[in-house]
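Possible race condition, two jobs.
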Amino acid sequence: MKFPKPAFEGSADSLHDLLETSRKEDEARRRRRADFSLNEFFLNLRSRDRLSKSRVRKALPPGDERELVSLAQRLMQEASEGYLQLRLQWQREAIGYLSSLAAEALCRLGGGPLEIPDGLDYVGLQAEGAPDRRLSIRAKNIGDFAGMKARYLNMNAEAVGDYCLRRALSCSMEVDVAGKCLGEEGEDLRLRARVAGDWLLLKSRRCRAEAYKVGRLAGLDSHNLELHVDYAGTELGARAKDAVIYVYRDAKSLGLRGSGVIYMRRDVPPWRTSFKVEKMEA
């Protein structure tokens, strides 16, 4: 009868040596993460023409979820402080992917919203949540292209730039001031803003938005839009299909072509439009 071969042959010193070697390796990895800089991160992204979340993750030192969140927040803060020096688009996209990785890791840890430094573009780029595990990002001021191609992401900010939540799916945003083309080509979005720029929810599907004031051509070419506004710019709902729009104060003009219904105050003059215009009770 053969007995199992011992896992650690020799004296107890050999086991001690293995444990000591493992301890030194862990310490070296901790020092590596502590010394890891933004410049080194960019250098590790050798092929800069095709970025992805997986390639950005491989450019970071190994570590667990909590260490990933901590490192990503430090690198994003470093990027925010010298953001004008990041002139190349791939650099800004890399920071955006980094924010998505951090948000996903924080969600898996059961943490709250990820706090993002001010002024970064592409925040939440292709962030992937789930219906039962939505991601959450919070910041004061966010740049352009935030939440682009994201899924199941909640965003909260005082101001965001242009083209945010572009081609996003099942995302939400609460913001005070938003730039142009918010939610362009998005699906199942839920938006709330005090002021939104031109082309709100352009070519979107099954979206709902509430805003005090929106710019020109809100809801252009959208499908199944529900929109609540106090003030709207010109060509509201142009070429929208099956839209339901509430205008509580005033709109400069309605889209000539479109289908659905627009609810307006009783004292507004008649508009030339193919929408069905209903009068709201005072």
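Job #2 (started ~2 s after job #1):
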Amino acid sequence: MLSGRALALAVLAWSLLKVVVRRLFDGPSGLALFRENYDADGLPPLSPAERAALPGFSRCIACGRCDLGEAERIAASRGAYPGLMTVVLASSRSMPDFDAAALALSHVPEAVLAEKEQTCPTGVPFRELARFVRSKASAALALDGEGSAPADLALAAAAAPPVAALDPASAERAAPEAT
């Protein structure tokens, strides 16, 4: 029977042999394995640049400053847009449902996102986050092939401005229906 160093070398050699054989004859690995496991969940892989940007998206401390002045957009969205703070928190804490996040962000113009960046005490890059979410929603739709109906609707809404152009009359009409 082997003992000491001889046993350690035998176990190490056996483990190496198993790894080599497994890599030769097993299925996909790396990015292909990731896609096989997570494409159905709508979880796309991240590029190194996207991975580096994630900590910036997560700087939100939920102070609520970005929600100031958002009542009209929230009412006009008829539930699709819960407010910028909620969207940022949901989009940055874990990989979100990108379709829903893109739909919510479609209710906030780029100029408003730029303005909100100036008022954010932690400097959350709202415009960059919106681009990230929209690109991941588009990628998820492309992976779907034909796309599912909810994804198609969300991305169509995200690509076009909200139907109600945020005039006060439309916000007043939407507000009573929401209660």
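The chain has ten helices and no strands.
Logs attached separately.
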